[in-house]
Amino acid sequence: MIISPIETVKGTITVPGDKSISHRAIMLGAISEGITEITGFLMGEDCLATADCFKKLGIKIETSKDKVIVHGKGLMGLSAPSSILDVGNSGTTIRLLTGILAGQNFSSSITGDASIQKRPMLRVINPLRKMGAYIEGIDDGKYCPLHIKGSALNGINYKLPVASAQVKSAILFASLYAKGKTTIVEPRASRDHTEIMVNYFGGNILRNKNEIISSPVKKLTGQLVEVPGDISSAAYFIAAALILPNSELLIQNVGINPTRSGIITVFKQMGGNIELINNRIQSGEVVADILIRSSKLRGVEIKGDIIPKLIDEIPVIAAVACYAKGTTIIKDAAELKVKESNRIKTMTSELNKMGAKITETENGMIIEGTNKLTGATVESYHDHRVAMSLAIAALRADKETTILNSNCVNISFPDFFSLLENFNR
Ligand code: S3P
């Protein structure tokens, strides 16, 4: 994809549905009783992979435009798949689904693409094994393919070694099948969409400070889930409006759950002119419209508790920080190394090809704002968030930029480039 610089972004847009919420709506719909209707569903490759896995597990799922109907069969209603489940590029699918499969009365196997086969799986397998799960994988479960022999599970008390919503959610899904209560202690709060949605479907999950307590229920009941726009997708356009002069952009209907909206806090700390308007609750989640005006930005330090609340936005923060005055320091973000690519490495090397001054550190990056980037040929490493963050950096560069392997945007934001193209007209 070739990205030419653009002058400004003006107007009103919406972004596709939240990826995390779309995955969970299919999963909970499948194991609930009755119909779950999902509007605003993200028709990206990751969420479609989740739908495919559940079809293989015997669930009828009807899809039309952005609406999905899931014919739930109840907690014990899934059936043994006749072939291996394939999650494609989706870490959320493999980790959360493994939690569900651990408690079934059948065996199954699950795998994904080359990137998924390199991503750590022991972080979910260890706690699930403590619950009584039988899971085998490459190198004793370090990597997939995984083979899961469904078994009776027990509740556990578990202290998460990393702040990960995927690990927490795998345990919470397994807890729906366990005898007794499950208590999870988080080192730092991570996204809580699973907790919100399980309760919305009739489950019983409580939070007490950094402890999450799940009590099994007899059944979950299908619901209407209205998926809001994904703040992780909105982040690219918030960034574009901040860095391009004379911009004024309204992004309607975006999920601003406090465990996801660290990006708004950080952009405001950098001097960003951002207003949240029309706050409301939709299917248990906080939603708002976001108004952004171009701003003079300054560097900030980003570390500690806010990191899990903006973990997927760090690549675009790195791009924006190049156009800020002063230095931006990102710490405590070692988790970036085990995402779809090693995002510390990939963002540092590719932005530096465009003239950025970024130093890679053990757990983050140091970015010297230069206020100027030059178009170059850069590589996405098949990582959707790297491709889109480089595209945003390219909007204010002084020449055009070529992004190699840019098709990966289909993972989470299939219309990304056409939405961007609209601002050129
Ligand atoms: C996700 C959790 C995050 C995030 C991923 C989606 C989820 O991963 O990076 O894109 O839907 O639970 P971790 O929880 O592993 O940090």
Structure description:
- By secondary structure, the chain is an alpha/beta fold.
- It folds into two domains: 2-16 and 228-422, Enolpyruvate transferase domain (UDP-n-acetylglucosamine1-carboxyvinyl-transferase, Chain, Alpha-beta prism); 19-226, Enolpyruvate transferase domain (UDP-n-acetylglucosamine1-carboxyvinyl-transferase, Chain, Alpha-beta prism), CATH 3.65.10.10.
- It is built from twelve helices and 25 strands.
- The strands form seven sheets. Strands 2-17-19-18 form a four-stranded mixed sheet. It has a four-stranded mixed sheet with strand order 4-5-3-16, covered by helices on one side. It has a four-stranded mixed sheet with strand order 6-7-9-8.
- Strand 18 (273-282) and strand 19 (285-293) form a beta hairpin.
- The longest helix is centred in the middle third of the chain and has 13 residues, at 231-243.
- The protein is globular, with a radius of gyration of 21 Å.
- 55% of the residues are buried.
- Bound molecules: shikimate-3-phosphate.
- Shikimate-3-phosphate is lined by residues 20, 92, 164-166, 169, 190-191, 311-312, 335.
